[in-house]
Amino acid sequence: MHRRSSALESEELGGGQPMVVTSRDVARLAGVSQPTVSRALRDDPRVSAETKVRVREAAQVLGYVPSEAGRALSSGRTRRIGLLLTDLDNQFYSHIIAPAHRELERLGYQLMLHTESADNDTIAERLTANGLDGVILATMTMDSVAPVRLKDRGLPFVYFNRTGSLVDADAAVVDPAPGYREAVATAAEHGHRRVGAVLGPSNTSTAQVRERALTDALREHGIALDESAIRRGVYSAAAGEAGASELLQGPDRPTLLFCGNDVVAYGALNAAHRAGLRVPEDLSIVGFDDLPEASWPIIDLATVGYDIGGMAAAAADLMVRRIEAPDAPLERTRFASAFVARRSLAEAPAS
């Protein structure tokens, strides 16, 4: 195609601003209609391959870039996906944004981060008002009303890590049972019998599922986890330190603490230090998630890990599938867990 020296390339509007190239300009240069330009640039199968090439060459010559607003008007989609976080202080969530963004970008969507300090009726209203095609819910509680409100408004969503109990939906979650079985087997080999746990909030699916998996694994080795040896709280280092501090008082303190996640375990490490206990000589600690920081030599935390990045990408993939196939059966993608042995789990101290 010969490059056209025309007013489209040289003409300036008043004030010295170059004329904005539109899809109509591309249509004139390519010798097609304006709707055909839109369809060709969307790779519509109704447009012949020859016409698509001609339109794309014309668009390249003129420097035409379709606007997101125009695409949204023509397709009825903004190609924007929200990621809703309410637990902003939890380091876990900083490690899911990048893989979710990369997967959505690969699929032709944008990731939009949305935050709320608490779950309430306004969350669904704000998400809907932002013109999203769908939402990945990452910090839901079991009793959250947000999924109900989103369903009522017809906005598709998927659960990531945590799930709600009021509305079923696609989900990307982790199965903690394999990792806990390995961790408990290792702990039993190391002679641990007095076990405590600092777990997550009881109104989250992650805390409930992990507690069941942990107690089942301990039971297989004849180890009891008494209610008096359990503390529950939010997934934070402060809650981990507070819960561990309570459990470490008295002569019959646990020789091993299982923590609801790595962030809670960081708090338990602080509690042990404040109590004058050495890890792992006096106390062993096991986390959950295997965050990158857990492998730092200064922490060296034994933990139950899984593919966090892969799970975030899977949630993004499920979201796009739901948008593009709204009537498809619900799908739950489960990621297996595995025990990651590190220095913080060692032989139980002699009685």
Distance between the termini: 86 Å
Secondary-structure-derived class: alpha/beta
What global shape is seen?
elongated
Overall number of structural domains: 3
Order of helices and strands: HHHHHEHEHEHEEHEHEHEHEEHEE
Assess the beta-strand content as a share of residues: 15-25%
Q: Biggest sheet, strands in spatial order? A: 2-1-3-4-5-11
Any idea what the CATH architecture of the largest domain is? 3-Layer(aba) Sandwich
Number of helical elements: 13
Mean pLDDT: 88
CATH topology tier name of the largest domain: Rossmann fold
Report on the biggest sheet: 6 strands, parallel
Radius of gyration: 27 Å
CATH superfamily of the largest domain: Response regulator
Give the C-level CATH assignment of the largest domain: Alpha Beta
- The portion of residues assigned to helices is 25-40%
Low-confidence stretches: 1-17
